[in-house]
Every structure is written in structure tokens, then in C-alpha cells.
Design goal:
Shape: globular
Distance between the termini: 10 Å
CATH superfamily of the largest domain: Aminohydrolase, N-terminal nucleophile (Ntn) domain
Bound molecules: fructose -6-phosphate
Number of domains: 3
Helix content: 25-40%
Structural class: alpha/beta
Number of helices: 21
Largest sheet: 8 strands, antiparallel
Strand content: 15-25%
CATH topology of the largest domain: Glutamine Phosphoribosylpyrophosphate, subunit 1, domain 1
CATH architecture of the largest domain: 4-Layer Sandwich
């Protein structure tokens, strides 16, 4: 995690870096800092807290530097504090460095440096790596770039680093392994950032730096090398991203904006792919590997968090439609196990950011064992996209609110289209059902629009339950993962303890929690489990629990039982999760807002989890 920004060129660096850090704050907001080099020397300003706090502390200060580096932190080594904030200064004070990632063998390197007399001002692995580089640089009297190369050969872990050298005011040195780094190419200027959002305002020409590459940047020159000191020709790409896509557009929070974008993002995801009239789905990533996908012995969904919930829904869909066994794995568990992977297994890596470290390493391991990797990803050109054999993008646009919303519904949409394509090719779905589901998918954006009209009703319900301490989310079948997702949203946005369960599992333990103070949210739209879930609602009511039910419009039975009802347009049970999650997203959002919390930047979280 952590966001990094750097600039070298003819502009004042500080405003460019500050704006960029604000855009990257979704990656961490425990502290922020900048290092600027001008005639007065190398100056570092850093502060615990959000970027705005660092900004306030610098108001009125002349900061004319044309070269600088900046960082917004998600703490790993060392608590959030001023002294652990980046940039760090080397022992000589000549070098400043920012870092995103984790240096796993930092303890060993630190021990070596301590034995040479080094002292450390922070608890970070970053300061260790910086002094390790400086030690090589000063002792070998070599160019800094060479010292970086030598040092990185000893480093175990993940990093993007950017170094500013007070003895060389026209050069920035950056390197990457395992964390993202984009270089923006302007006219006599260069930008560096963790993603393209700090860059698009200035240039659309970018280079995505690969693992084990080192970049040497001057205003008018970009040199890329590998760790073996061989030059690499930079592959310049054009960004397909507009500034408006990363701004709030009149909403109070990115999360709310992103929830309301869903009719459009789902439409964008379907556009050019699904044609309900012709009965076709066009997905090159599936078509080019259709034989392999059809003949899969097994599909393993690998993901984390909300993306893992999308994988769970997909398990139900793929098994039902394609008759292929599916397993859904937490990437963090899968990568450390010794999983049995056969040739013919398909790994579906689901990730919004495409940078989640656990998911990335998990697929790399599976690839080594011969698995075929299909990515379901939102960020074009991301690390997981590049590590996949094939895949399909979700086209949800940049998701900036830390809680995932529009990416989830886009993941479901993509996964359902992939399942339908495979099922049609395998003949495991009747033509009638295939056409029916295509039509149902085609209607999703409109139904999501209708679900969003319930905004005011959900706001009222949120006000009623904002003071609660625990919430249970229950669902069955396709709606069980939606219950899990609803609970996760509430936890992360409102800090209220919430648990998701399959509704029938309740009587094997969680029902002991139920009393008149416990709100229980049922995701109970009409499906083949409907009668069963009605019985589960009765069981909660019999124990005086408060029931909030998400139902299909006209469901008088459940409405008569529930304390609060949210009615959604009817949809096929396979498609329903894309719609039934919408009120749960809004509920979590409004409860968070009622509690006065920063819903776009919940405590302890970051958007892109690039540490394991
Ligand atoms: C929850 C959330 C996280 C992410 C998880 C995976 O709202 O956003 O649980 O879903 O960190 O991230 P990606 O999808 O980027 O791999």
C-alpha cells in the first residue's frame, strides 16, 4: 500500500506532489510527507495524519523546488507517527527516499548496519534500505544508481523506491519489485506515481515500470535498466482515463458517487459484449481460450475481501450453469498452502486493483504448477493483468472510495457473462434459459437504477440503527455471499461489528446472539430458497430480534414479518446479487455518515493492499 508521487521538471514540484498525494490517499493515510530539493538544500516535511494535515503545516512556506518526492503512508513497520513518516533521510543527510512495500530481510540488513555504527531515527524498514544503499554508495564511491542496483540484489520483499540525491539535483532514481510504479512523460518533465491518477492532468503518455527495473529520470531523459545494468526500451502507452473519472462530481463522498455510478458501470461492463437481441456475448479473453475453459476440470477463484465475495457468488453460478466444480480461495491462504493444482485447472484471479499482493503471488505460484490464469480485473495494465494468461476487464472506472462497491457489481457482471459463455459452449444450459439470463443481465442497469431510488428510505433505516453495536446479515444460496458482503461493508465503514452467515447455519450457533437489541438483515429476494428463509425470519422474530428484510417487490409475506422492508425489482435468482447488494452498500454508507466517520478513508484500511 502507501502512495508515492515524485516530480522533476520546470514546474514547482510541491503543488504537483501535494495534489497527487491527495489522489493517492486511498492507498493509505497514516502520515504524509515530501522531500524537496532547491537552492537551500534538501528539505523534508512530514506529519502524522492525512495529507491535509501536512498541507496545513506548510501553508505560507516558500517551496520553490522543481524536484521532489512525496508519500502517503499505510503503516507496516512502526506506528503511524511523524518520525515513521516518509520521506526518510539517510545518515549523511544527502539522500531522501520514499518506499511502498515491505523489506522482509530488513532485520538482517539493520543488524549489519548497526554493527557498522549506524543509528536509526525511525522503526521503518525503509530507513534500513536507504542506509544500506548509502553505505554501498559511500564505500564504493560509485554512482548512486549502481549502489541502488547492488543493494536491491540483496533485498527480499516488495518495493517501489524513489531516491532524491542532494548532490545531483537533476536526477531521480526509482526502482520497482512487486508494487506498482507509473512514469508520466511530459515535455522536459517527468512524473512518478503509484497509479496514473496524479499524472493524467499533465500528460497521457505513460510507462508502466516492470519488476526488477530501475528508472533514472532527468527533466529531458528517461533511462530504464534492469538490475543487470542493461538498458531497456521504455514502452510508452496512452492513458485511457479522464480527469472527471477521478473527481467527486458533486457527491459528498467517492463511495456515494461510486454507488450511484453503478447503473452506468454495469452498462459499460455489458456494452459491446452482451447482445440480448442476437443472443450473443462477445468476450475475446474467453473465446481465445474456449476449449481450455470448457474442458476445465476445476475452477479455483482466488481473491481477497469483496473480490472474494464475488468469487463466492461465481461458485454458485459456474457450478449451476457450467457444471464445473469450483473452489473459492482466500489468496492469502492459498499462496502459503501447498495446494494441489493439476494441468487443466483454471485459476480465476478476481481483483479490483490488480495489485493485491496475496492474489498476485498466489497466481504466480499456480502458474508455476501449470494452471491457466484468467483475470477478472478493473485496472488495465495492472500487475495481475500482466501476470494473467487471459481475462476480462470489468470497466468500472477508477474506484477511489476505500470500500469496494461498483467494482463488486462489475465483477459479478463479468463473471456471469463468462459463465454463460462457457455454459453455452458446453451445452450445459438450455437455449431458453441462456436467452432468459441474457435478457435478465441486459435489464440489470435499469433495475439497479430503481434500487437506487430507495436512497431516502435506506437513509431512514440507517438513522434508526446507527447506534447499534452488532448486526447479523443472513442469506441463502446466491444471496449468502451478498450477506457476507453487506456485513463487510458495515464493518469497514461504520466500525460496527457485523457478521454474515448462511441463514440456515444460524441455528448452529449464532442464534444465541439474538435478542430484542440485535438487528438481523435478511437478504431474502424471491428465489428457490424463499420458503426456507421465511422460516428463518420467523425463528428470529420468535426470539424478538429486529428484522430488516431485502425482498422482491410485492412480497407481502416477509413484509408482514419484518420490522423494516426494502423492496427490490424482481430478478432471476442467478442475477439477483448484483441488485440485492445495492441497499446494503447504501445502508453501510449512511450509517457511517450518521456516525460522523470518514467513509472514504476508514481507519486502518487502504484501497490497494500491496503488502501480504
Ligand atoms: C472491501 C475491499 C477489500 C478489497 C480487497 C481486495 O470493501 O475493498 O476487501 O476487496 O482488499 O482488493 P482487490 O479487489 O483490489 O484485489
Amino acid at each position: 500500500m502507501c502512495g508515492i508521487v515524485a516530480y522533476i521538471g520546470h514546474r514547482e514540484a510541491y503543488p504537483v506532489i501535494l495534489k497527487g498525494l491527495k489522489r493517492l490517499e486511498y492507498r493509505g493515510y497514516d502520515s504524509a510527507g515530501v522531500a524537496l530539493l532547491d537552492e537551500t538544500g534538501l528539505n523534508v516535511y512530514k506529519k502524522k495524519g492525512k495529507v491535509a494535515e501536512m498541507e496545513d503545516s506548510l501553508i505560507g512556506k516558500a517551496l520553490p523546488a522543481k524536484i521532489g518526492i512525496g508519500h502517503t503512508r499505510w503503516a507496516t513497520h512502526g506506528e503511524p507517527s511523524d518520525r515513521n513518516a516518509h520521506p526518510h533521510l539517510s545518515a549523511s543527510g544527502k539522500l531522501a527516499m520514499i518506499h511502498n512495500g515491505i523489506i522482509e530481510n530488513y532485520a538482517q540488513l539493520k543488524k549489519e548496519l548497526v554493527s557498522k555504527g549506524y543509528h536509526f531515527n525511525s522503526d521503518t524498514d525503509t530507513e534500513v534500505l536507504l542506509n544500506f544503499i548509502e553505505d554501498i554508495w559511500l564505500n564504493n564511491h560509485c554512482p548512486l544508481e549502481e549502489a541502488v542496483r547492488i543493494a536491491l540484489k540483496r533485498v527480499v520483499g516488495a518495493y517501489v523506491i524513489v531516491l532524491l540525491n542532494s548532490e545531483d539535483p537533476d536526477t531521480l532514481i526509482a526502482a520497482r519489485k512487486g508494487s506498482p510504479l507509473v512514469i508520466g512523460i511530459g515535455k522536459n518533465e517527468h512524473f512518478l506515481a503509484s497509479d496514473a491518477s496524479p499524472i493524467i492532468e499533465y500528460t497521457k503518455e505513460v510507462v508502466y515500470v516492470n519488476d526488477y527495473e530501475l528508472a533514472i529520470l532527468r527533466p529531458d531523459e528517461l533511462i530504464l535498466k534492469n538490475l543487470g545494468n542493461e538498458k531497456i526500451t521504455p514502452y510508452i502507452q496512452k492513458l485511457d482515463l479522464e480527469l472527471s473519472a477521478i473527481e467527486k462530481g458533486g457527491y459528498d463522498h467517492f463511495m456515494l458517487k461510486e454507488i450511484f455510478e453503478q447503473p452506468q458501470t454495469i452498462y459499460d461492463c455489458l456494452r459491446g459484449r452482451l447482445d440480448a437481441d442476437k443472443g450473443t456475448i462477445v468476450m475475446r479473453g474467453v473465446e481465445n481460450h474456449l476449449e481450455q475453459l470448457m474442458n476445465a476440470n476445476r475452477i479455483i477463484m482466488v481473491a481477497c475481501g469483496t473480490s472474494w465475495h464475488a468469487g463466492l457468488v461465481a461458485e454458485y453460478v459456474f457450478e449451476e450453469l457450467c457444471r464445473i466444480p469450483v473452489e473459492v480461495e482466500y489468496a492469502s491462504e492459498f499462496r502459503y498452502r501447498n495446494p494441489v493444482i493439476h494441468k487443466g485447472d483454471i485459476i480465476m484471479a478476481i481483483s479490483q486493483s490488480g495489485e493485491t499482493a496475496d492474489t498476485l503471488v498466489a497466481i504466480e505460484k499456480a502458474k508455476e504448477q501449470g494452471a491457466f490464469i484468467f483475470g477478472v480485473l478493473n485496472v488495465v495494465g495492472s500487475s495481475i493483468a500482466r501476470a494473467s494468461h487471459s481475462g476480462a476487464y470489468t470497466h468500472a472506472g477508477p474506484e477511489i472510495g476505500v470500500a469496494s462497491t461498483k467494482a463488486f457489481t462489475a465483477q459479478l457482471t463479468v463473471l456471469m457473462m463468462v459463465a454463460l459463455k462457457i455454459a453455452a459452449a458446453k451445452g450445459t444450459i438450455s437455449q431458453e434459459k441462456y436467452i432468459h439470463l441474457l435478457n435478465e443481465l441486459h435489464e440489470v442497469p435499469e433495475k439497479v437504477e430503481i434500487a437506487l431510488e430507495l436512497n431516502d428510505r435506506i437513509k431512514e433505516i440507517a438513522a434508526k440503527y446507527a447506534d447499534t453495536h452488532d448486526v447479523l446479515y443472513l442469506g441463502r444460496g446466491y444471496n449468502f455471499p451478498v450477506a457476507l458482503e453487506g456485513a463487510l461493508k458495515l464493518k469497514e465503514i461504520s466500525y460496527i461489528h457485523a457478521e454474515g452467515y448462511p441463514a440456515a447455519e444460524m441455528k448452529h450457533g449464532p442464534i444465541a446472539l439474538v435478542d430484542e437489541t440485535l438487528p438481523v438483515i435478511f437478504v431474502a429476494t424471491k428465489d428457490s430458497y424463499h420458503e426456507k428463509i421465511v422460516s428463518n425470519i420467523q425463528e428470529i422474530k420468535a426470539r424478538k430480534g429486529k428484522v430488516i428484510a431485502i425482498v422482491t417487490e410485492g412480497d407481502e409475506m416477509i413484509s408482514s414479518l419484518a420490522d423494516d422492508t426494502i423492496e427490490l425489482p424482481a430478478a432471476d435468482e442467478i442475477i439477483a446479487p448484483i441488485i440485492s447488494v445495492i441497499p446494503l452498500q447504501l445502508l453501510a454508507y449512511y450509517i457511517g455518515v450518521y456516525k460522523g466517520l470518514d467513509v472514504d478513508k476508514p481507519r486502518n484500511l487502504a484501497k490497494s493492499v500491496t503488502v501480504e
